[in-house]
Amino acid sequence: MNIMKKYIQITVMAVVLASCGKEFLNKEPHEFTDAVFWKTADQAESALAGVYTPLQGEEGLGGEEWCSIESFSDNAYMNDNYSDYIAMSEFRALQNNEGDLSRNSYVQYYQAIKRATDVLTNVPTITMDAAQQKRILGEANFLLAFSYYQLAARYGGLPIYNSTDPSAALTRKTEAETWAVIETGLKNATTQLEWAHQEGRPGLGAAWGMLAKVYAHEGKWSEAKTAAETVISSGNHSLFANYAQLFTIEHENESEILWGLGARFGSYPITPILMLPNDVWGGKHPDAVGAGWRLVSATEAIYNAYQPGDLRKAASVAKKGVDIVTFNGTTDTIVAPNNQSPVVCIKYMSPYAAAYTDWAAGLNVPALRYADILLIDAEAIMNLNGGGPGNRTTGVSAAAVPFNLVRQRAGLAPISAPTFNNLMYERRMELAFEGGDRHFDLVRWGLAAEVYNALSAEGTYKPKRTFIAATHRLLPYPQGEIDNSNGSITQNPGYAGK
């Protein structure tokens, strides 16, 4: 257990998000063992609330691993000493013995998968309001697919949970079979959810948007375009005018957020504290002792990659001794003496601008945004019109509209015929520090080796790396899961034991 975890030492109840608009998550989740359960609408709602619980966990979507996966890219690195996880992010690990971030994240996503599957199995048997039942099933399908997606992007083929076949947990499906399960869950959700949705819940925009991302990962460009443009043409979502303000508690529920994982002050999720330096002012101004975890920090590579005039730079990163930030009621040049690199991620720092409040500031996790879907649409159009990773300098005028909506919001001049190189830039800067999209993008494009292997070392915190596509396109499978299966779950190619 690291220092910050000892510092927190807090017992968190399962699913207790009590802020306005997220009352549905107050329900105590049932453990699914009571023979008289699955009888009423209230029990169905309670079971659904229980699906969200593990996603909020410290190593789930609401915590360390969601932030730490960014360190696999050229955007970030880990300050904390998780040696096994760092070895994986530096592409030198032979297996995955990481028993905290990686293993716990895996377990928490599978808890969500198990609970979502239980909802989908049992709620159809309950006599209840048809519209309520349909929404519950839609949310469960979305959360099931989302959880599988997070793991499939990391590990490839997965065990597919089956409540009637315990042996299914002991073998991995192929990658194609796994992605088919994800597709099915999201397709089902598109028939069950509505555009209007309560804060903290996914709606129809999230279902179609997530399906667009899945199709993009699979290279199904016609399908990705159709799914993305279903969201775009609906008129139910739009870009928020101010990029920086989007990542504030005041604007965490704008229509740009297709799905934000709900947060409550004083409880998980804890994204802001994970990125915050533990000493912003270095004694220059009053500070909160132990305020930030500084688990993940930014690289000079991303700081130097922003184009002149890109408003996302000041909203996302700050350089020590150069850039001005506001923290704990003071506005001044950031000091952050304990940060290894000269650059700090400040994207989620806004809850602490007026004063340091709590280790869990109550800021929702921006799990899926409209800007992402606009860029998926542009990418699909490029791939369908002679552009793409293999033709990175080919301009595609048909992609200009969705592409430039994102670019111009960032304060940059529009491009009449954007190229794939242009798209790579926009996705990197738009989605930096939001769950590892930069790394997963480079891998699915087949460009990770070219980009990563060309990078010079940054001090000792981001050494020179060698990415071998055949191996490193996937992370090594958690060794604990392989051991628990007595070897029936197999390791990914290129790692020890495979």
SSE blueprint and pairings:
Elements: H1 3-8, H2 41-55, H3 64-68, E1 76-78, H4 83-89, H5 101-122, H6 130-155, H7 175-190, H8 204-218, H9 221-234, E2 257-261, H10 271-275, E3 296-298, H11 300-305, H12 312-316, E4 317-319, E5 324-327, E6 330-333, E7 343-345, E8 365-369, H13 370-384, H14 400-409, H15 420-430, H16 437-445, H17 448-453, H18 469-472, H19 479-484
Could you please describe the fold and organization of this structure?
- The protein is built from 19 helices and eight strands.
- The chain folds into three domains: 3-265, Serine Threonine Protein Phosphatase 5, Tetratricopeptide repeat (Alpha Horseshoe); 271-358, no CATH class; 370-435, no CATH class.
- The model is unreliable at 1-21 and 26-34 (pLDDT under 50).
- The protein has 498 residues and is mainly alpha-helical.
- The protein has helices at residues 3-8, 41-55, 64-68, 83-89, 101-122, 130-155, 175-190, 204-218, 221-234, 271-275, 300-305, 312-316, 370-384, 400-409, 420-430, 437-445, 448-453, 469-472, 479-484; strands spanning 76-78, 257-261, 296-298, 317-319, 324-327, 330-333, 343-345, 365-369.
- A two-stranded antiparallel sheet has the order 1-3. Strands 2-8 form a two-stranded antiparallel ribbon.
- 52% of the residues are buried.
- 41% of the residues lie in helices and 6% in strands.
- β5 (324-327) and β6 form a beta hairpin.
